[in-house]
Amino acid sequence: MSTKKILLADLINAIQNTININSDEVAELDRAIGDGDHVVNLQRGLDALNNIKDELATMNWSAAFMKIGMTLMSTMGGASGSLFGTLFVSMGKAAKGMELDLTAFSEIFYQGVESVKQRGKADIGEKTMLDTLIPVANSLVRDAQNTISLAVALNNAKAVAITGMESTKELIATKGRASFLGERAIGHIDAGARTSQLMICAIVDVIARHCEQREAI
Ligand code: ADP
Ligand code: MG
């Protein structure tokens, strides 16, 4: 099996696992300040990705990101379907002709997050997935510019994803369904911020493991 095929299978598997393990918690979060469907939407999208993982492995990263984005858009539904879809389609556009090292990936991810901001007309501090995604994008770009090692950059990305996700607890929502609740949303973590953090942590762990294995050979 090609390295890319193994990596993609591992990534999708790890993401599905972490979302499934935490599905009750995420459903509860979206029930508290949304309509409760976020985790089911995401699981449907991840199943669709799992079904096309062999095809994705034959593509370059730009085409694969694009296909991932379109698949999420057409299968997930909900606000998060169009936003996660936008993230990957935009990453696909930004990845055209690029080799995926830390510097390139940080720029590609940054562009993806910028597109989510535009699509959702939202920014940091509005109690959405962007409270996880923006700090991660900023951390990766900063670490790439400072030529920090990949291992440290990955750990930093995890740490800011967790802090960003937790920050949503005390925020009032100004975007999405939770914005209808005003102050009543305070005290609840945003579901999309939580799933974004779970997925980022799972991705980081898989990449770190693959890098260690490659170094060990
Ligand atoms: P819906 O809100 O349509 O039911 P989901 O439940 O699947 O869709 O997704 C909800 C998540 O989407 C929220 O928890 C939040 O993180 C994210 N979200 C909603 N609206 C926006 C927005 N305008 N910008 C960024 N993220 C948003
Ligand atoms: Mg919902």
Provide an overview of this structure:
- With 217 residues, this protein is mainly α.
- It has one domain: DhaL domain (Serine Threonine Protein Phosphatase 5, Tetratricopeptide repeat), CATH 1.25.40.
- It is built from 10 helices and no strands.
- The longest helix is centred in the last third of the chain and has 26 residues.
- It is globular.
- The protein starts with a helix and ends with a helix.
- The mean pLDDT is 96.
- Bound molecules: adenosine-5'-diphosphate and magnesium ion.
- Adenosine-5'-diphosphate binds next to helix 3, helix 6 and helix 10.
Assembly category? single chain
CATH superfamily: DhaL domain
What value does the average pLDDT take? 96
Which outline best applies? globular
Classification by helices and strands: mainly alpha
Name of the CATH first level: Mainly Alpha
Bound molecule kinds, no repeats: adenosine-5'-diphosphate, magnesium ion
Rounded Rg: 17 Å
- Beta content comes to under 5%
Number-wise, the strands total 0
Write the layout of secondary structure elements.
Blueprint: H1 3-21, H2 23-33, H3 38-51, H4 53-57, H5 61-75, H6 78-94, H7 102-120, H8 130-145, H9 150-167, H10 191-216
Bound molecules: adenosine-5'-diphosphate and magnesium ion.
